[in-house]
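Open question from group meeting: does this chain pack into something compact, or does most of it stay loose? Before anyone orders reagents, we agreed to write out a predicted structure and look at it together. Recording both the input and the output here so the notebook holds the full record.
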Amino acid sequence: MPAKGKYMLNEQETKNEALYRKFSCISQYQPLVLLLGLSMLSCVILLTLFFALELSAAEHCAFVSVVSGSLCVFLAVFVLVCMEMLSQRWRRLLGLIVWATHLTMGYTFIFSGPIILPWDQVPFFLFIIFTVYTMLPFQLWYAVVLSVISSLSHIMVLTLRLTIYNTKIPPFLANQLLSNAVVFLCGSVVGAFHKVLMEKTLRQTFQDTLRCLSMRVKLEIEKRQQENLLQSVLPVYISMKMKLAIMERLQDCKDKEEQQRLVKDNNFHSLYVKRHENVSILYADIVGFTRLASDCSPKELVLMLNELFGKFDQIAKENECMRIKILGDCYYCVSGLPVSLPKHAKNCVKMGLDMCEAIKQVREATGVDINMRVGVHSGNVLCGVIGLRKWQFDVWSHDVTLANHMESGGLAGRVHITEATLKHLNKAYEVEEGDGHLRDPYLKELNVHTYLVIDPRSKDPLLSGSSVPKPRVNDGLKMRASVRMTRYLESWGAVKPFAHLQNREGFITDTIVNGKPRSKDIPLRSVPGSKINERNKSQKSKFDEELHNEMTTTIDELSSKQWSKSEERGSLAMWFPKKDLEKQRLFPDKLSRCRLLPAVSEAVVKQPCVRLPLATITAAVIIILAVFNLCFVHDTTPLTEYLVDGPNLRHTNDSDEQKLQEALFYLPYSVYCCILSLIACGVFLRVSFELKVLFLTLASTAYYIIIFSTKKELFMFYGNILCSLTLNDQRNCSSGEDDSSLKWIGLVKHPQVMSCIYITLFLVTMLIISQQNEYCFRQDFLLKYKNRTEQDEIETRENLNRLLLENVLPAHVAALFVGENKKNEDLYYKSYDCVCVMFASVPDFKEFYTECDINKEGLECLRLLNEIIADFDELLSKPKFSGVEKIKTIGSTYMAAAGLSGTPVQENSQDRERQQAQIGIMVEFAIALIGKLDGINRHSFNSFRLRVGINHGPVIAGVIGARKPQYDIWGNTVNVASRMETTGELGKIQVTEETFDVLHKLGYSCECRGLINVKGKGELKTFFVCTDMSKQQGMGLS
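Structure tokens returned:
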């Protein structure tokens, strides 16, 4: 049984083939319209000439009737073709009507005159055959059938008429009929050659159009992914500025290798920070979560955090707050960004109460002892992004620090607010004394008066959720607390991180404009798995469907004649207004090295210096042969004895007329050779339209000169001979009037007039076909050019996407969320048994940071912090530190980890050695940071010193947060590393005893500090890494 993918592929190929047929049908519209126009013009000219020359309508009744009727048919078909709905459906039938009308005209021209000759209307039937291939909307096999019918019918009808139904067989009848067949065969071969090449070109144009649209669709997807990625991390007003800055930087660099390097390094130190006044800041911490997390599996921990913070994100959206960052189990947000809101304090307090209520529901439903501690303060903030890697939107100010201490000095289950916030509440909530100064020394130092908000739900049982019966996970005490929590929280159904990347229609953003959310709510209920699978099962089929729709739209635009209105194409000469485009079209890419025959063939196609001389010589030879054949093949001296006063005939007998006819029957075939030379000149597809016009005009001019001047008497003489063959009395044809024979035998049978009419017809036809060819090839070139341009733009955007994504997630994690094998429907979590974690802070920056008019309310202080963090980030691009991953910055603290890119939970000795080497690399990185900071001190005349804490051990890594997905690591190892930094000393690197053992084996010397008291851990023995021996190495790395 064939695979499902094969069916899908065949279905897609069928759709593409149907689109191609439609595309082909549209492309045949203009040639058909031009053919109808040419046919109508020819009919009008024939009728005009007929009456201008005062020919007898009574004698040529059939001619006048059929030409007039054909004019009406062509006009009716023209109107129907212009009615798009009808012409799309019946275009082949309309083509058959045009062909049948031409055929009717041809046979009318043959039988309407007083004489029928073997060469009669061969040019007109050649015109029918050639236009069947080149201008009528038929496929190749259909055109072959119609051309065979046209040519065979002409030969068979004349054969029957001139043999069976004629008493006197014309001389050289077999030779003339064979010549007719050769002329028709030449026309069919040239027409089929043109048809095949144009079909190939058309299919190539279709493929290029499809590829161009595919690039466009992919480009749109890349744009949407960029917006999704950036706005997953940053507010719109900042993300757009950063995106434009990076795009300008990448576009200025044309070299792809340099572009890749710029994407990797991204070493620009722009500051994207803005000051906002009158905002409220909320800090919230989950009390008891650390104890709960120690009992969790990696999956349980990440799922629990994602569900909790997903719920908090929903509450933030409902209360018009913007989440800033997640720090472990701490959540903080701001109301009044980016647009100022008059109810910012009320929003934050309401959000804090809702968070406490949500955690209360969890506690009551699961029996797990967790609670929420919330602190709120109102004031001013500086918000934006600093650094070059792992961008995270953050806020800075003394008011932010105060809000943080309001949380740490608060009470579990309560919202702790300052007096500034209380003033903005306008008595919307009842409060009671908070006594925060008794629980936090910072609040005591600043003498901050605090309050606790009384939740209205605690007074009104109807507003409280406690009266509503809640599901309780009560499978007894057999179930662990973490399992009970996980099972309950799964019912909330928080959206998975980066789930919006799957949706091409849009993305979820927490930006609020004019107090109104910009996009849809996050669903609180989980989407059924079957629907998720149905939505995500085939990204390629979605892409194909979107591409099919785009192609259908484009073809519909072609149908409505919008395709020809191209800005890149001139109107008259079809030259590209842009000189670079014209130059690229004339001089394509250089030839590749290949064998002789392919090289010659490729040179003809690609090199004008080879193609033009070859085409010129060939066309000149064909034209010269045709002219030579018309002028010099036969000696006309014996005919002069029959001439009197120019082309007039002496009285001749039947044998004389037979001799004259035998001597001049070749004359029309010489003209046919000239017509074939016009066709041959016109089918040089790769020759420019201007050169074809020159060839065709020169050749036609030469033929006109020969027919009307050089060999005029010969053509008139042959006309008089034909006239005499139809009459017993020769006086009418030898009376000395040049137009007597023309009036008798008609327009389309007189050799001279017939020759000029058909040469003009083919001249105009070949000019039209040449113009169409030029248009097709220019359109094909334009599509290829756009294809290359959009391909370059896509590569630029892919580089930008890679940069953006790697600034959100580590590279090995990013591949799981964006790419062909997306796994957005799953939470990402990994457990590692040995990761080295580092915290490095600049404590002096807190004293350095001031808010006054001189430093633009702290903005210039942040500019210096941006330079410090950016210089730290630059170290990550060095090959030696490729294994170091920046996690985040917290104020002036830099957090990084080593060992996250390896295989999780590794056991063998080789892996242990590599893990231990990562610890050494992290120490070297810390030393390099110290060296970098020393360099900044020298340039900025400051005396900042780094305080570093390092620890290693097992961690859990994962991505949480649907609205602003964030990669983070958790575990006791992270907590101890943080304590190593906070309890350390300036200018020193403090490590735990376990880390000291590894460093000692690696050859690092450490100094024992002794036992120190670590919050939550008791007394720990710690060590300072001696950096004196490595100092020069660290400075060298900087």
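Observations to bring back to the group:
DSSP finds 35 helices and 20 strands in the chain.
The mean pLDDT is 76.
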